Amino acid sequence: MNHLRNPYGGPNRKLVLAFDVGTTYSGISYSILEPGLEPKVEPVTRFPGQDHVGGDAKIPSIIYYDREGRVKAVGAEASQEHVQEEARENNWFLSKWFKLHLRPKSTITDASKTKASNRIPSLPASKSAEDVFADFLEYLFYCAKKYIIEIIPDSSFWSSVEESIDFVLSHPNGWEGAQQFSMRRAAIEAGLIPDTREGQARVTFVTEGEACLHFCIHNRLSVSPCDSVLIVDAGGGTIDLSTYTVHSGKTSPADKMNLEEITAPQCVFAGSIFVNNRARKYFEEKLSGTRFFDDIDQIIDEFDKKAKLRFKSPNQATYIKFGSFRDNDPSLNIRSGQMALPGTVIEEFFEPSLMSLIDAIEQALSATGNQPIKSMFLVGGFSGSEWLFSKLVHFGSQYSINVCRPKSNLNKATADGAVSFYLDHFVSVRVARWSYGIQCTTEFDAQNTEHLYREHLVTTEPSGTRVVPHVFSCILQKHTRVSETKEFRTTYTRESRMQAALRSLPVEILSYRGDAIKPMWTDVNPDCYQPLCKVKANMRQISKTLPRLYGPNGIYFRLKFDVVLLFGLTELKAQLAWKENGVEKRCPAEIVYDIE
């Protein structure tokens, strides 16, 4: 299948940058949009401090800070021996896995709560997760700018695009509006965009699962109309699962490949760092009280770089070199600076992550109903594990699922796919992960037993209407399939004796995360209702036009409006709508998140 693109139809040259900030490694891809030419996706393959220039499209997601909180070294530069020696001498702080500090607390799975798995390094004392994320984005932008300027002979190119660069930021499937809000604020702090409505619009978000789907399509993994596919993005911190069905193919630029999400995406905190954590716990127990205990960091580093991905079978031993030929201790299986580990021991490091992944896959399979999965595409750095791949191939054979990996560099799947998402937009329908709505009141009905149960909470509106509180008004129900352009809206009213009280209209959007098919009352299992965001709009102009109404206790005002939500995009959009002289008016609403 030849995935051609239409020529770029914009009037001016443009640059798109995609930053894949991973838990352990990060990458950059880009596309230069020239009017009349077909856009192409390119990776940044040269970073400062890399040993193998051009051979790797990723750098470690690490930052060294000094004791005053200043950035001293980032990425591959922070991995250089002379930098690490300087860091030890000056007591610099190494920040790694910082991305996981942005994660929603509610999405931590049982797999990540175990003692061995939950060792997420702390942040620098003077820095928030958002601050560290911003420092890393600033460095990635520096790397992208340096690389692009070096490879493009046109000296005026950068100045012609730098004020209008569009950025695509990828994130795990389980992240939502609050995490996107933090990432956008980090982009502002990093100087990528100005803090204006126009500047903020230059940042687009895509889930890692959807980005990897685009990568797979462009790497010619076979998809045909009516096929259903499962994308497994196995990364350092998370494993993301996304399921799609193919509705049409693409054979020329005039055609549009169309895929629809068929189940809500999943995010499992069971990536490769948790394998490392279980290995670390094993080595700490094994080497406790020995002269080799101080070598554990080096042992883990060697395990991570070499032994982990090469491990294939519990029937063969693995050797981890960490010392000199003088280092020997037969009781610890250490000979000539190498520790021999039985394959059965290494398998124990992997198995909890595999079990969490298989459980998530089985949930996805059961949720697809009459659309059986035919193919499973495995991408991401962790998918390079031969043991993990062989286990998933065996699992897939039980369900007649073909499991395959792209032949291209798996490490750049998310960054390349994020640019493709910006250019191609193959997914037209997504599935709502939760039920969304607002808490409101409704007119009291003495014939309704649920209303009678709450009669002691009934209040009277200025109009004289008696209302019962704690009603969950659902705007979008869980598992609803949502097209990008479909709006979900519900009409509400606000009453007040003071006209000025209706000038500002804050509405809190809730997400219901329980098991009820049609949740109705927020005081039933209240922990299942989580604030998603607040939608705020300035209603000063319409409030001035509200007519005076008369109730039992005098004059009052009533504002009637619609909350309009668009969930079909990768980022929640909201508007408020109302009628003026029979004509619908709208205003974009500011969405405010309470950051956890």
From TrEMBL:
Q: Which SUPFAM superfamilies match?
A: Actin-like ATPase domain
Gene3D superfamilies recorded for this chain?
3.30.420.40
List the PANTHER family hit by this protein, alphabetically.
ALPHA KINASE/ELONGATION FACTOR 2 KINASE, HEAT SHOCK 70 KDA PROTEIN 12A
Record-given protein name: Uncharacterized protein
